Amino acid sequence: MRFAVLGSGSQGNGTLIASEDTLVLVDCGFSLRETERRLARLGVAAAQLSAILVTHEHADHVHGVGLLSRRYNIPVYLSQGTLRGMRKPVEVAGHVVCGQQLEIGALRIDVVRVAHDALEPTQYVFNDGRRRFGLLTDLGSWCPRVRDHYEGCDALMIEANHCRDLLARGHYPNFLKLRVGGSEGHLNNHQAADLVAELGWKHLQHLVLAHLSSKNNLPQLARQQFVDTLGCDPAWLQLADQDSGLDWRHIA
After folding, report:
1. Residues 6+ apart with CB under 8 A from 167
2. Is the N or C terminus of the chain more exposed, i.e. has fewer CB atoms within 10 Å?
């Protein structure tokens, strides 16, 4: 199995997961042209995609889903709540159900309900029969159910959205600070690092920090929090950013 990131942040998100001849895109928050450009940078043509999975209806995750799926006849899977929340209609191949498993080609995919300010937000754990890759962003808090789904992953991409202090001192209005930092907002650096500590990290081949806020976080702050909490080598931590995403990573 391998994975790559088109980009991660409030201006657009997209993550690729591949195993054998199966290639899945999770979310598409970019325009059609930008999506094609970012896919090409990773050596992928849009026509190669087996499916698009959607996590929730916020624009930075769904902006390009409809156009991409129609242009290349790519099946789309998402929750019923996410479909209801989308401003533009999209033809759906199937609905994902939290707590159940979806099969797409060589991948078995656990559908995980998370706490986020959307109608029926989901995240995913991918299994090709040999290795497991966990994708976990866009949640303001986590519970034992979420932790149990992500235990034993071989690679993990996790949200480290904001620094608590930068958010508190920043220029966001109070209602937005409460939304971002609330239990249905986004994980801060401390929360994300504490969760990884509970999951255990020494067995992970890759730990990727994602969805960093451009206004309320800094890469060095996120990295340092994980180093302080885990005691890991800072050079081992990886970062998926907004502009360049993350090149292909193989899970051996």
Report:
1. 177, 180, 181, 188, 213, 216
2. C
